[in-house]
Records
---
Amino acid sequence: MAIAAFETISEKKIFWHTTAIILAQAVKRLFPEAKLGMGPAIDSGFYYDFDLDHRFTEDDLTSIETEMRRIVREDLPIERRTVSRREALGWALEMDEPYKIEIINTLPQDLELTIHAQGDFSDLCEGPLLERTSQVRAFKLMSTAGAYWRGSERNKMLQRIYGISFPRPSLLDEYLQNLVEAKKRDHRKIGREMDLFMFPAEGPGFPLYLPKGMVIRNELMSFWKELHAARHYNEIRTPIILSEDLWHTSGHWDHYKDHMYFTKIDEADYAIKPMNCPGALLAYRRRLYSYRDMPVRLSELGHVHRHEPSGTLHGLMRVREFTQDDAHVFTLPSQVKDELKDIIALIGEIYAVFGFSYKVELATRPANSMGTAEEWTMAQNALKAAVEELGIDYDIAPGGGAFYGPKLDFHLRDCIGRTWQCGTVQLDFQLPQRFDLTYVGADGEKHRPVMIHRTVFGSIERFMGVLIEHFEGKLPLWLAPVQVKVLSVSAKYADAALALAGEMEDAGLRTEVDNRDEKTGYKVRDAILARDSYIVVVGEKEEKTGVLTVRSAKAGDMGEIPKAEFIAMLQKEVADKTY
RNA sequence: GCUGGCGUAGCUCAAUUGGCAGAGCGCGGCACUUGUAAUGCCGAGGUUUAAGGGUUCGAUGCCCUUCGUCAGCUCCA
């Protein structure tokens, strides 16, 4: 969520960090035995981690807030003191703060440290902070959650308290109001209201698409197929179940088996594919390609299953079964950069169709990976060069790569500011080796191709989730399950409504009729809640004049529009993919 | 998977400290014949509260286990 209350990012960080320290002070006053973890400012707000046997309750949050209010009223000056490492250690020992000692011990030897003190409390933190506690005028503790010390599941889980703060109470109110609004856009709720999909208790993480959800899904897929065919991708479809041996060859067994499902056929071991690449490799390897054939672009709307940990499932955004809009491109080493640039441009172009802004991240070599350092450096440099030549900004995610190669991830933002990795471009020198892929070069010798894995939507599921939240269910017309809802004013006009709907359907528009024995206002309300794109009412007036009375989901009442004009307008809106 | 919260009708929610399980929406029927965000009346719907076990004269409520779900962590398209 955009937070406009602060002039600059650093101002915001200073403010929130200061509030986190006040939170720590309040907790220490109420629970002196609590040990302090870390308490940074984050994208929206701040948190502080505590190690404490007592579990924080809702009531505790309220009393902590009260104590924080007291600290703010006390108007304590916040004093900054630069100390040596030895002094800092002395401070931490005296305070009996084991986590602070650990932090100090991991910092460089010669680094100067800072301790901030306010009244009865002091904390080791770099700062900068505000000058007085009274500057934090409005704050709220939002929630508690467990969080591993230093983010590692091998470490102890601490209790984290999240909060938000502002210089003025009105800004806090506005923020809380925005949160309520954001919640209304939750795709899980809208999906139910629009009758798009469901998550049966019988299959956690396995979405069940309903007829209207299928419309969106199918539209996305045909759009994608059309675009890729035009760019000389050739579609394939690889089996869902393949021999376990294949996954040993590919390296997935060693690096990914905890996330895979397995099965047996007769006495032999098989795996349900979590990725499409091995299938694509089999397709490539079926024949000998010439350098003249390259690049070979094999695309696949690949249905994969992954055993994701139960706690990570989240509507359509994180599921255990999904369809990746995948493609594997086999190129000559000399073609890699241009192919990467084409792919990156294609991703940007497709996102633009929906009006999405996105952020790019270069994910580098992870700890548990295949291949040599040289190969990784080469691959990372190729990705870097491609984005840079296109003039696209990117961040670096150290160690975030796939086990077989580095990648560029494209993140889309959801309604409450969470970002979701959708598109990805991954460079892979490993699988071609493992599968001994070759092409015949101009010299008549066999050479090793380079493999690029890439998706644009990421998965149809996640992309749909982001779309639904972004548009609050009022999808661009070309994607909308119900493009025209025809309402009859009374039973007398039921036939006229059916006839009109027939005309709309003949014009290629997805149309529904509501001839229920209800008041017009009721049916209009129903259509609005269903987010039907256009509502057309049929009654005496329309029957006489042939003019339609139209209401749009996005623009509201549109008044009267001649029928032919209306149809042409919608056809254009669909064709243009207007958003 | 981990930590914590939650689980009552298809949906959204009620049910004083443990004491006979309710409402609105939706659904079915009837009447009304409807003009841009909810017409009225009647009715069905819970095998008794996610499932299983325990404490108790008595459990939706307390305890345990499992499952699901939500938030966060870790992970990830």
---
Amino acid sequence: MRVRFAPSPTGQLHVGNARTALFNWLLAHGKEGAFILRIEDTDAERSTLASELSILDDLRWLGLDWDEGPDVEGPHGPYRQSERLHLYASYANELIASEHAYYCFCSPQKLVADRQAAMASGRPPRYDGSCRDLDRDQTQRRMEAGERPVVRFRIPPGLDVTFTDLVRGDVTFNSEVIGDPVLVRSDGRPAYNFAVVVDDALMGITHVIRGEDHISNTPRQVLLYQALGFTPPQFAHLSLVMGPDHTPLSKRHGATSVAEFRERGYLPEALVNYLALLGWSPGGDEELLPVEELSSRFALEDVGHSAGVFDQDKLAWMNRHYMKAATPGRLAAEAVRYFLKAGFITQRTDEAMEYLASLLPMSVGSVDRMEEIPDRVRFIFAFDAAEALARPEVAAVLGEPGARDVIAALAQEIAGPLLDKEAFRAVATRVRERTGHKGKALFHPIRAALTGETAGPELDLAVPAIDRGAALPAAARVVRVMGCQERVRAFAREMGARPT
RNA sequence: GCCGCUAUCGUCUAGGGGUCAGGACACGUGGUUCUCAGCCACGGGACCGGGGUUCGAAUCCCCGUAGCGGUACCA
């Protein structure tokens, strides 16, 4: 089995295309087939090398490695269509010689006019065949006169073309609705339908798994395989990915490219797991499956037929799951960029990374993506008593019964750094004994004074995290963290300046 | 317009001539907790419409309808 993914390098890798790549990869991986990457860059105006590089990068990030492709090469290369032009030219000549194809001199203007006329009268819009029967001399003369013809494929009339789609079953098109497609453009570059057939045949592709938008191209490709003397591969067409409003997933629905999801802090295994289940079901009740499990269970027969809506909420849920499953060290490596961006860390030193790793378990269960983590622990790095008290919800805590007493007592009881849960508990106990307040009346004011917030991670974790941060040397390159003792004193001072 | 594909909770889906139509996300309620989030429990929620075949249709067939795709010298 040989499958392929053949993107056009005209932008970033869209999640819909990533899913197509993934389904191909899962199939090959589960059946020990080969996964080939081919770059379809015959559209010179829109193709860029930067886009090719970013697509390769995104594929690698997702873990979809390929056996043959533009960077690794292989026995069927080159793997960029722009480097295979001689092959298309040679097969085009062969088709012209066998009269499966012919030169066409019709102007674009005529084609547009014909198409409009056909639509207006309710007929299928297709090429009218004006140049089908030009004789060799005429063709020769016009080419010598400087006209640049296209090469068209001769579609046999009145023929039902049926192919078996591995997802949908038999699909039939009548050749009457298919106009003679352009194989080679007037500038000599091959058109998609031609290049794809030549390449898939020459590269020995056995299963073409692609988006449903190609299903109506398939009959002309099947005919082309036959004319060229190649055996057509098996086809499977995947339904498309939609936005919540059931229109094709696009920018206005939010993130659509793999690069964007990566930037926002989704883990690749979360995106892979989510995408695998969009349009395919492994059958059982479990949905959180490692990639090896996905590939061993994947089968085209179990792929759904209908378009699927991309559900950001479910992706977020899976991402939470994989963030919780990841080790702190891995998470720190993945999330450090967001801390650098927030300015909480200024350099990736070993101490900074270690400190980060210690912070992540308390914050990771409550965010959807890694980019949200710094905000969840912002209280550690950006404490300011005056600012905190200026906020209504924090000021309101002071109005709770006994809150001022608790804070005053806390200011006296904290004698040094609270480096672990036990140290914090001991202080909290002494404050409780001194003030007689417990539960919410005790912890709510403590939270306000120590974090400057009214909500956040549990204090057992948050408080030691603050003082461990405060104990970090300047060389750790973590922004200065104010310790708990200093915090509560500052808070009490500000509180004193605000009478009840 | 023409051709093609598709149709089960809001979403992703399982199932498939007789089922209490199952699960997950989301949502609601309760519990846990100093708080938010999380976590746990419980709950509401679906077979596009109409015909036909059949003892029986969500399931098979036909016709509609709707959505999507194609209808290029884009891919």
---
Amino acid sequence: MTVTSHDVARLAGVSQATVSRALRGDARVTADTQERVREAAQALGYVRSELGRGLSTRSTHRVALVAELENTLYHQLMRPIHDELGKRDYRMVLLAEDSDDAGLHERLLDRSVDGAILMTSRLSSALPFELARRNLPFVFLNRVGAFAGAPSVSADNFAGSRAVGDLLVRLGHTRIGVILGPSDTSTGRDREAGFRAALDDADISLPRNRVFRREYDEESGRMGLETLLAANKPPTAIFCANDFVAIGALNRATELGVAVPGDVTVVGFDDIDMAAWPAFRLTTVRSPLMAMAERAAGLLVDLIEGKIGTEHDIFATELVLRSTHAPA
Amino acid sequence: MTVTSHDVARLAGVSQATVSRALRGDARVTADTQERVREAAQALGYVRSELGRGLSTRSTHRVALVAELENTLYHQLMRPIHDELGKRDYRMVLLAEDSDDAGLHERLLDRSVDGAILMTSRLSSALPFELARRNLPFVFLNRVGAFAGAPSVSADNFAGSRAVGDLLVRLGHTRIGVILGPSDTSTGRDREAGFRAALDDADISLPRNRVFRREYDEESGRMGLETLLAANKPPTAIFCANDFVAIGALNRATELGVAVPGDVTVVGFDDIDMAAWPAFRLTTVRSPLMAMAERAAGLLVDLIEGKIGTEHDIFATELVLRSTHAPA
DNA sequence: ACAGTATTGTCATACGTATGCATACAGCGC
DNA sequence: GCGCTGTATGCATACGTATGACAATACTGT
């Protein structure tokens, strides 16, 4: 039923080995024979089996993108990753990272991929160590893992958040709140640290009841805004650890009849496409997400092909001033 | 370097064949031996090679999800598909459907997947015929292909759009515009037909300058709204072929200072999560996307395992009245 | 104790491709 | 016509797993 290289060989009147060589353009096969083989392959509609090829060469030219399906940030990153990998003759496979790691470990180590891009790795995750132990090349994207032995690509989260802190201070805010991401992610930690640094410099305190910490999703933003504003002395400005959170905050504010930026300033992080929509016009920090994704893909291929060592790339961020911030 | 079943066999003091059987829980291996093998596998950190397994069994337990990366609708569908496949012991692989079909054909036919879910298939696409010819099982999701030999799962697009048409008529609109999706998709065609049927029944015409046709994305909505409203006698209501388009229309309306629904009524289709956000509160038609995705995944697995024939499932839709519609 | 059967494990091979090595053959100089 | 070189192709095998056929062992009843 399936057409194999043996079928092609029979039709072209050569051996299977010659078919393999001919189709790869091996110079040891005459142009004449190559042509004949190619025609036979075409006629039969031959498609080389990735399984056979992979088994033989111990490489699949496939790369796993490991992400939490719920984290919508990666949707924007798939195109640049896909295209960069394509250019380098690699394919992308999406693996969902769920709570139970067991299946994921296996899927990464079953030899069906040559490497992985980890996008949503938690600092506490054992995965990077496991992969390193098994010599499966991988890079971090938008994360820095607890494991330092792998290349990473990330935005300058510390500087970016610090810039937001400085902005809020400059605008005269003193009661400032923050909706943070998970503390066991590098972005969660770094964005917190940068922001705190700015407030510290201005001698502005960040009491516990002005800190809300949860996931990187819209829902968290909704809850965060509501919770923070319910306090005795509610903040006049809220920094959200990423744009999805910020948009959730804006949504809840609208529902509660809270004016932004009239009643409260809201600032996000990442500058996803949606942030620029007129419905939001979110003031935020731009991470060069496309460039980062492309770089990560490139680094991974280099790593797989043994061309580089460990390298940590940090991309500069840029404050994007839109319409959700105002003086205190 | 890589741990194989031979290594496990050596350590457990049995043959490779026994390892294979033991790990699959074959009754022909004593519980005692199974335990010993399992321990050895554990000790060595053995992970079965998908390549070897696939080559031997001619099945990979992997299913391709074929989608255009730009079509954000599928992001919402990945979780139900992923989970349903997981339950049935299958894995999901995302393949980007780009303009050049060549690479895609190969990736589907290289025996690295057992089947495919086609989510963005164009009516003109040769892919379904190609897959059918090669006996690669597949199902259509949210589409009906020109090829009728494969199962399909879709919403009742005709009835849904007709309901929107009826609604607009009931609200007293007579100058009605529409922003349609590509005419070589079944959704594009069916949603157009249903809407036209409703207008026909009410003797309301749909002149060419009130029809804008483009892709299923936010950008198309922006352009569509602007174009339609620029006409001499602009429409007082606009039906958008899906929610992304509708949101694009809302965005552009905001930028242009056009009030919705004060100046113009806007209705979408699908009821994606975002449609309910307070920034939009979009009146739309709900497709049971989750249930559809789950069903498609289930059907595909049944098809792969030879349990069913061809079956076309159509899910009922439901009008969701929010805040973007008003009387003429 | 023996034949007969059930149980447990091994052997050998297939899956489809890639590749080191061997071979056949053409061309060449003498 | 002989041996030599070099090139085009074929042969054989490896990759890791699964499985049908078979062998070895234990167990049963008489």
